[in-house]
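A common beginner's mistake is to predict each chain separately and then try to dock the pieces by hand. The better habit, illustrated here, is to supply every component at once so that their relative placement is modeled jointly.
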Amino acid sequence: MTTPATGPVAAVELLEVRKNYARVQAVRGVSLTIERGEVVAMLGPNGAGKTTVISLMLGMRRPSAGHVRLFGLDPGDRAARSRCGVMLQESGVNDVLRVAETVAIFRAYYPRPLPTGRVLELAGLEEVANRKITALSGGQRQRLYYALAVCGDPEALFLDEPTAGMDVEARRSFLAGIREYASEGRTVVLSTHYLEEADQLADRVVVIDRGMIVADDSPTAIKARVAGRRVSFTVNPAPSAADFEGLPISGLELRDQFVRFHSSNPEQALAAAFRRGWDVQNLEVVGADLEEAFVSLTTGRGADLAQTDERP
Amino acid sequence: MSVKAELRPVAIPRLLVVQTKAVLLGYWRIPLFAIFTIGLPVMFFAFFGLPRLHQEILHHVSVGAYILASLGAYAVSNVLVYNVGIGQAQTRARKLDLLQRASPLPSWIAIAATMVGGLVLATISLVVLLVVGAAAGVSLPLTHWLLLVLALLYGAIPMLGLGLTIGYLGSSGNLAPALASLIYLPMAFASGILIPLSQLPSVVRAIAPYLPLYQVGQLGWNAVGAANESVLAAALWTAVWGVVLGALAVYAYRSDQRRKFA
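With all components supplied together, the output reads:
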C-alpha cells in the first residue's frame, strides 16, 4: 500500500474494493487513499457509484471484495465512527422534534461535541432553533443535516451530494462554510455531480463512472480535460457527417436537420460552418455538461479522439 | 484542532440513556398519540367499569378490578403495538435509521432505546389507568396492585415482539398502521380484554387461548384473583409467545438490515 507502516494513518483507504447488488456491479475495483486533511470531491453522473463508495467508506455497506479502512480501523468500529460526521443523500430525522433538540441528541453520540449553540451558528440555523423540523424549508432541512454532520466536531466529514436541491445563494454560502471547516485541517469527502462545486472546494477530484475511478487529479487538471462547449443548431438541407470533416469537433450527432457536437473551439467550428454558406438556425452554444464531459473522460477513446479530431 | 487520536467513543450506558430520552421526547411531542395511548384505556374504564364498579363476578372479585386488569393488559399492549411498532415503522419510513447508522450510535442501542422507551411509556399508561381506577373506588390489597403491574409488564415481552415485528414488516414502513390495526384490534377483542370472555361467541372463546394477548389477560386476572386458568400456565404461554414473537421481530429486523446495509 501507499502508506508506509510507520507513517500516519490515512483517513480512508480502499483497496481493490468491489460491491455487487444482486446482479448489478455498483463498484468495480476501486483503490483510493484519502490522507488526513485532504479535501476530496468525488465527481460522477447519477448512478456512477458515488453513494455506494461513501457507504463503503463508512461501513454502511460491506464490500463484496477488497478492503476498507477508516482511520486505520474497521469502518464499523465505533472509535472510527466517532471521528466522522456524515451527511447522507437520503435520510431523515424525527420531524416532530425541534431543531435544537435534534442537534442536542446527535451531538450526544460523540465524545467531544461542539456546543449546540455553536453548531446552530455553523449551520446558520440560530433563527429556527426552536422550530419543529416539519416547519423547515427544504434548504433549512439540508442545513440541519449539515449541522448533524458537524455537531460531533468530527475530524472527517463525508457529504453525499450536500447541495442537492439548494438554490444558488444557499449553495454559495454552504460551500463557504465547508471550506472554512476544511481550512482547519480536517478531511472532507464530498460527492457531487457539479464540476464547479468540486473546483471551488476540493484539492483533489476523483472522477467515478460506472463503478470505477476514471480520473484522479487536481481540479485544474480535470477541468482542462473536460473544457469545451456544446454546440447545437439546425440547418437546411440536412448535412452529412462528411460535411464536418476537418472541423475541431467531437461527439457529432446528426438527426435530420438537427446537429449537435462538442468542441473546445466552438468559434472556429461555427466560422467554418458559416463560411460554407449554411443557413444555421436555432443556434445554441452552452458549457458542456458533466454527462458529456464524462463521455470524453470515460470512454478513453473519446478523449483521444477529441484531441486528434480537433486539429483544424 | 486538537489531537484526537486517543478519543474514546461515548460509553454504551450513556448512549442508551441519551437515546431513550430521545425516544421518549418523540412520544411526548405527539400529544395526540400520547392522549390516545394513555387516554383510551382510561376512557374505556369510565364507560364499562364505572357503572358496575362494585358488582361481584368470579371469586368475589369486583367488576371494577376485573376490568382494570383487562384494560391494563390493553393499555400496555396498545403502547407496544402502536407507539413502538408504528413508531419504529416511521423511523424507517423517514430514513432516520440510515442517519443513525452513519452516526457513532450502534444500531442495537437504537433498538434497545426504542424498547426501553416503549416499556417506560407502557408503564406510565398502566399506572395512570390503575391510579384512576383506585381513585374511582376499586380497592385491592397493595400486593395485588404491585402484582398486577409486574404481571402486565412481564406480559409486555411478547407484545413488544409483536410491535417490533409490525414495525419492521414491509420494505418502506408505510404498511405498519394498517397492519397494526388488522392484527392487533381483532386480537384484542378475541382475547377477552375488551369484551369479557364470558360474553364472547363460543367460536371465538375456543380460539382465545391460542392468542398471546389472552395469556397476558390471564396474567392480569390472576393478579386480581379473577382468572379461570392457573398463573403458571399463563406465565409459561406468555414466555412461549415471547420467544416466538421475539424471534419474528429479530427475523424482520435482520431482513431490514440486510436490505439496507449488507
